[in-house]
Amino acid sequence: MFNNKLYQMLYKEINIGRFIKDRVDELGISMERICNFLKKNEDFIEEVYNSKSIDSDLLLRWSKLLEYDFFRLYSSHLILYSPPSAINKNSNNQKSEKIPYFRKNIYTQEIKEFIIKKIQCGEMSQTEVINEYSIPKSTLHRWLQKIDTK
């Protein structure tokens, strides 16, 4: 059920508190265990459930407790909805050696399944997917070929 919510949300609008609450419900974790793990009270936990965004350190703790990478929701959003980067836009722009370089062309299995599902159910055509999500035509065709050979 948790993954179905991801598909329904289309990764576009991320309400992290709702995702956390859904995962807690799915796993059946008690409020007492959550409070002990996070070292917070029940009111704070309820505030998190109602929050659209939370601090990254806190999100990391929730990810550990609930055994789910909530940061992936944001990565998926970046991959699907960020504009394509301009190559050699500015020759003075060099890759930073201090922080990892963001590569837009890394697609998780969840994203591949999300996009293939859109095509298979007729919600979007291949051309619409290519245009909407800036996925190279050859990449999309490769994904679809793998589905056909299974």
Overview of the molecule:
The chain has helices at residues 2-9, 16-27, 31-38, 42-49, 56-66, 71-81, 109-120, 126-133, 137-149. The model is unreliable at 86-91 (pLDDT under 50). The chain folds into 2 domains: 4-77, 434 Repressor (Amino-terminal Domain); 104-149. It has 9 helices and no strands. With 150 residues, the protein is mainly α.
The domain count comes to 2
Specify the helix fraction band.
55-70%
Gap from first CA to last CA: 24 Å
Report the oligomer. single chain
Number of strands: 0
Shape: elongated
Structure class: mainly alpha
| Count of helical stretches | 9
Largest sheet: none
Low-confidence stretches: 86-91
CATH class of the largest domain: Mainly Alpha
Strand content: under 5%
Mean of all residue-level pLDDT scores: 82
CATH fold descriptor of the largest domain: 434 Repressor (Amino-terminal Domain)
CATH architecture of the largest domain: Orthogonal Bundle
List the helices and strands and how they pair.
Layout: H1 2-9, H2 16-27, H3 31-38, H4 42-49, H5 56-66, H6 71-81, H7 109-120, H8 126-133, H9 137-149
